[in-house]
Each structure stands twice: as C-alpha cells, then as structure tokens.
Amino acid sequence: MIVHIMIMVARIKVEKREGEEAMIDIHSHILPKVDDGSKDLEESIEMAKIYLENGINKVIATPHYIEGWDNTFKEKNLEILEILKKALYQRGLDLDIYLGNEIYTTMDILEHLEEGKASSLNNTRYVLIELPMFDIPLFIEDLIYELLLKGYVPIIAHPERNAKIIENPNLLYTFIKKGALAQLNLPSLEGKYGDRIKSTGETLIKHNMIHFIGTDAHSKDKRSPRVKKSLNLLKLMVDKETYNRITYLNGIKLLEDEEIIVDSPIEYKKEKNFFYLLKTKMNIF
Ligand SMILES: [Fe+2]
Fold first, then answer.
1. Among 38, 40, 166, 278, which residue's Cβ finds the most Cβ atoms within 10 Å?
2. Is the whole model's pTM more than 0.85, yes or no?
3. How many CA atoms lie within 13 A of 222 on its CB side?
4. How many angstroms does the Cα of residue 29 sit away from the middle of ligand 1?
5. How remote is the CA of residue 179 from the centroid of ligand 1, in Å?
6. Which domain holds residue 152?
7. Could you report the per-residue pLDDT of 188-247, keeping only the tens digit for each?
8. Distance from residue 1's CA to the centre of ligand 1 (Å)
9. At a CB cut-off of 8 Å and minimum separation 6, what does 186 contact?
10. SS3 of 170, please?
C-alpha cells in the first residue's frame, strides 16, 4: 500500500504594515549562478527571506544582459527561475518571482528581445535598460523612439547613478518626455553609493522622474534586499499616494502589462544659492 504523506508547510508571508500594500521590486539579481548576483540556490533562498522581512512580496529577477558577453538566455533563465520557485515553495516562502533582464544599452536591444534571447519584464512591453555609469550614448533618444515604435516601453534603471544625470537631472526629464520611465535604487536614498547619488535620487523623486523602485540586490549581505530604512526615507519625501504608486501600483500594472499613465516630470532648476548670486553680481560666468 502506498502511503501518501502530506507535508504541511506553514507559509511565510510578507511583513506588511497596516494599511500598506506589499511592495514590488522590479530590479533584482536573485537568480542563482546567473550573473554577478546570488552565488547559489541557498543564497537566493536567504535573499527571499530578507525580501519578505522588508515588506516586498513580488520581485522581478533581472540578470544582466550585455551584448557581447556570455549571457544566459531567456529560456535557460526560465528553467533556473522554476528551480528557485520550487525551492521557495518547499520552504513556505511566499515570494512571487518573475523573469526579466537588466539590458545594457546598445542600439541592438530590440534584436535581442525579438530573437528571444533577452527578456522584457515578465514578458510585457516594459524593458529595463542600463545606462553606462559615466556616460549617456548619443543614440539614447533614437533607442527610446525605436523601442516605443515597436511597442516596448523602456525603463531606465537607477538613473541617479549615472554621472551625466548627476550633473544634469534634466537629461532624464528629456528621456521621460520622449516616453521612457525610470526606476530608482532604494539603497541610493540611504547614501549607500555616496552623497551625490543620494541627493540626485531625492531630486529625481521630487521632480516626478521616478516611477518604480528596485533593490538591485546582488546578495544576502553587502548588496542585500534590506531596504526598510530606505523605504522609511522615501515615505518622508513623498505623499502617501505617490509612495503607493511607485512602490506598488505601477509595479502591478507593469506585471499585468497595462498602460502606466504618469504625472508630468518637473524640470529641475538649479538652486540659486549665495555663491551663485555672488558670482552673478561679480560677473564671473
Ligand atoms: Fe542591477
């Protein structure tokens, strides 16, 4: 006689605060052994626990996709994702994970998406793109136009970390006006990448230039999904409606491939501080 043993696993759910929805991270390197993110399945499981403790219950795994690199393609990533999902289910960890990529900006992004090598976010119209750290390619506006023309919506990953946008936040204003969206790395708000990135992040948020949040988590330790502190800082910066929109509502629409209507970005105007006024008076410019 075959005896079926039912193993009851207590579901470990996200820690939510009263009146708040759980959050959605659209930028994570939680997939094990794919890129420079999680080093193995055990680390991914630990990361999943941290996500739930920090109020996040939906995550889009976005391994790097860089043209010319030895990338793991979409089909293989889906297999790895299934292994991870099974492992989380067996441990009662109630974290939903979807597949995407963080695609490094080249003019050929479209080709890689259409060949089925790179993945949009949860197979939707939304595509997470990564700018170089210190520059912005001259073709970026053509790329945005091209992607939109083919029905994709580019989301610029962590613009607050790009040196040119740090110098001039209105570059992002222009890209949003052309139809792009943007995702902020939560650790930027804590100053984890330095003061200038922190203040650029704050500027972009205050000027309606941020539409999603991400942890950009790579591990369970140094670059982990421990983002409670950053979320508290974000909450002090925006009203409740905006907070819900960028931590949850826009993410839900994204996962369901719905159109996301955003508030118009506000153009950044450099503050005219004492030294600026003095220089103007002395005609130093
Ligand atoms: Fe990333």
1. 38
2. yes
3. 6
4. 7
5. 22
6. 23-267
7. 999 999 999 999 999 999 999 999 999 999 999 999 999 999 999 999 999 999 999 999
8. 52
9. 213, 214, 215, 227, 230, 231, 234
10. helix
